[in-house]
Write a structure and sequence with these properties.
Blueprint lengths: L8 E8 L7 E5 L2 E5 L5 E5 L6 E6 L17 E7 L2 E6 L6 H4 L1 E6 L4 E6 L1 H9 L6 E7 L2 E6 L8 E7 L2 E8 L8 E8 L4 E10 L8 E10 L10 E2 L3 E4 H4 L8 E7 L2 E6 L7 E6 L14 E4 L4
Parallel strand pairs: 1-22, 13-17
Antiparallel strand pairs: 1-21, 2-3, 3-4, 4-5, 6-7, 7-8, 8-9, 10-11, 11-12, 12-13, 14-15, 15-16, 16-18, 19-20, 20-21
Amino acid sequence: MAELFAPFSLWLVLTLNALPGISSLHWSPEGLWLLADNVDGLYQLDLNTFEISPRLALNPNGDFAEIPKAHKSDFEASAWVDGQLWIFGSGSGALAAIRNRLVKVDLDGQTFEIGNLSPVYSQIAAKGLELNIEGAAAFGGGLLLANRGHLGQPVNTLIRVQAEQVMGLQRLDLPTETFAGISALEYEVETDRLWFTATTELTGSVYEDGQIGDSYLGRVENYSQLATKSEIKPSQWLNLSELDPRFVGHKIEGLALAPGKLYLGSDNDGAAPSLFVLQHSPSSAQQSLPQNGKIQHHLPD
């Protein structure tokens, strides 16, 4: 099935040793913005020099310290909404006061305000879902949220939200023998395509990590015509390890669309994360890379 994504090839792999993981990505002309689920801070990658910098701390201490799992904000999703980067807590587990936060970031002014997702998340929970929001996108004047299932509740759900009201739930049915949980989401207005990633992980809860399996890239064509259906399947679907073996062992949790490129970020639960760059025409820039197409990258001192 790799031919379905034939215009894309893996151009570059960056190993980001100084980050604990990549839980969400956002592309802008100024660079690539990265989140880690156990750091309350926003990083920026310069796409010309590939230098990464801690840019905006999202906590009162103004630091980028790693937070223990039992106390982390668990920022797993982000979306560009009304000229701001909205960052979503996952809502998972019993830490509602921490994980139900919405952070609205003004990237130009490097300021942010904190809101509360509890009114929305309580509606989702009331519909019988165990909360674990792993993706978000602006859609139809509102939001589209992606709730990840697990082996104990093997259902991925897309949730349409308008003005803090849940308007509908939609099951995303994926063609894998082992359950794959949705891990990132992007909606492309110009093409009406819904892009997403999914991963297999041997865990039966929204809280505990498990053995990392495969990661997948999926796409739904003409999504606006399908948004109110009760269930959808991907139009195109790819095991990323079939595209390139360098994806083996990586749990992809970040996805960002850019002109001619796709950025995918991994969160490997303790191992250094990697940023994978897919592009339409790799030959034009390949000569500027190391022979193995891989850069070991640390934060600057």
